[in-house]
Amino acid sequence: MSELKILFAGDTFPVANNISLFQEGRTEEIFGKKVCELFESADYSVCNLEGCLTDTGIPVEKVGPNVKAPTDTLNALSALGIKAATLANTHTLDFGSVGHDEMRNALRKYHIDFFGTGDSIDDIKSHITLDIKGKKITLYTVTELFAFNTPDKNKAGANGYDEYRVCRELAELKENCDYLVVLYHGGAEMTHYNTPSIRRRFHCMADNGVDIIISQHTHATGCEEYYKNSYLLYGQGNFCFNLSKNISEFTASGILLEVVFGENGFDIQKHLVRRTETGCEYDEEQDFSTFEERSRLHDRLINGDREAEYIFQKEFSDYCRNMWFTRLMRVFRGINPEDDKALADLSQKEQETYLISKFTKTQLSAIQMMLANDEFNEIALNFITQAINDKE
Questions:
Q1: Nearest residue to 97 (alpha-carbon basis) of 15, 22, 152, 160
Q2: From residue 306, how far is each of 51, 202, 319, 320 by CA, in Å?
Q3: Which of 19, 118, 158, 330 would disulfide-bridge 124, Cβ 3.0–4.6 Å?
C-alpha cells in the first residue's frame, strides 16, 4: 500500500477584504504560492468552514458576530483543492436553517463534501469515511454547543459534544476503519493554553480509539501531546479567517497539519502559515520554538509536575481575567445603562474594581455555586430558554 497524505486546515472563511478574491478563485493572492503547492501535493484536504455561506439567509439573534459570505466564494476553496469542510462549529447556524441549507447546496454544487450538522437532532452527519490508496480513514467532527446551534427534533444544528454518546460512537467507528481522526471545535479562545476539561475530553476520546485529535475554534496555536498511541493538537489556530482587522499574537499565525498515513502508522508534519492583508501565506521561518516549549510544559503537567500545573493555571486565570471578566460580570448584572455610563471612561482594571464592588461576597459565592453545579446549570438554562421564548 502506498502512502496517503491529508492536509488539515484550521478555521477558514472569506471576509470583507478578500471576498472578491474568493469569488474570482484567485488562490495565490489569498494563500500564496507555497501553500497552494502544499494542497496540490495532498491526496485529500479538509478545512473548518467558520461561518455561513448564504445569499438570502437572515441572521439569528445571538451575542457575538453573525459570520456570512456569498456562496460563490467557494470558487477559491474549490480551486485550492479543498475536498471536505467541517460544519460543526459556532457560526454554521448564524443564518438559521435557510442559510444552512444554502451553504450545503452550494458545497454540493462545488463537489465539496461536508459533515458536522443536520436538519434535526436525528439527522446529524457526524463523520465521513475515506477509502483511498487502500486505507480506510474516518473523519469525525464535533463542537461545543450554544443555544443557536443546538439541534432538536424540528431544528437544524451541529453535532454537539456529549461525552457518553460521542465516545461510544467513536469506539464503534474505530472498529471499521484503519485510522480515526477527530476535528474538535471548542476551548478557550485567544489563548495558547488549554483547559482541564479539554484535556480530559481529548484523553477520553483517545482512550476510545481516536488516533488524531485536532482542536480548532481557539484562533490561536497551542501545544501538542503524544498520548499513548494518539496525537493530540491543542489549538491549530486560523488558516484563513481574518475576521478582526487587528492582528494579535494569537491570530498572527496558524498550523496547517500534514498527516502521512503509511502501512505501519502515521507521520505528522506541521506547517506554520502567517496571516497577511488578503489571507495567509507560508511562514518561511517555521519557528516552532514557543510551541515546543509549551508542549514540553504540557507533558510535565500531564505527568504531575506541580510547577507546570501552576504555570498552566496562572496562564488560564490571567486569560479569564483579561479576556472575559467584564463581559461575564456585566451579564450577571443584567447589562444596564448605569453600568454603561460608569464604565465608559474607565481602564480595564478600574472596570473590574467597579463591577466587583457591585456584588457582595455572598452574591459571588451564589454565582460560583450555580456555575459549578451541573444540576443548577440545567435548571437555569431551561428557565432562561423558556423566558426568551415567552418574550418572543
A1: 152
A2: 40, 21, 20, 21
A3: 118
Q: What are the strands, taking DSSP E only, across 25-108?
A: 44-49, 52-53, 68-69, 84-86
Integer Cα distance of 58 and 176 in angstroms: 40
d(CA 217, CA 146): 14
For CA atoms 273, 275, 278, 284, the dihedral sign is negative
Yes or no: say if 11 and 239 are a contact pair by the CB < 8 Å rule.
yes
pLDDT for 1 equals: 55
Look at residue 357 in the predicted model and tell me its pLDDT. 93
Residue 190: predicted pLDDT:
85
Give strand pairing partners of 118: 157
Q: What is the mean pLDDT of each run of 10 residues along the chain (392 residues)?
A: 92 96 98 98 98 95 90 98 97 95 98 98 97 96 88 94 97 98 93 90 98 95 96 97 80 95 94 96 97 96 95 87 79 86 88 91 89 82 84 77
Radius of gyration of the chain (CA): 21
What is the per-residue burial (b if ≥16 Cβ within 10 Å, else e) of 43-76? bbbbbbbbbbbbeebebbeeeeebbbbbbbbbbb
Quickly count: other Cβ atoms within 10 Å of residue 249's Cβ. 11
- Asked if CATH classification 3.60.21.10 holds for the domain at 4-302, the reply, yes or no, is yes
DSSP reduced 3-state for 275: strand
Which amino acid would we find at residue 320?
Answer: C
Give the number of other CB atoms < 10 A from CB of residue 200: 11
Question: Residue for cell digits 498572527?
Answer: 252
Q: Give the bridge partners for 234, in sequence order.
A: 223
Annotated domain spans of the chain: 4-302, 306-391
Verdict on whether the full-model pTM lies above 0.90: yes
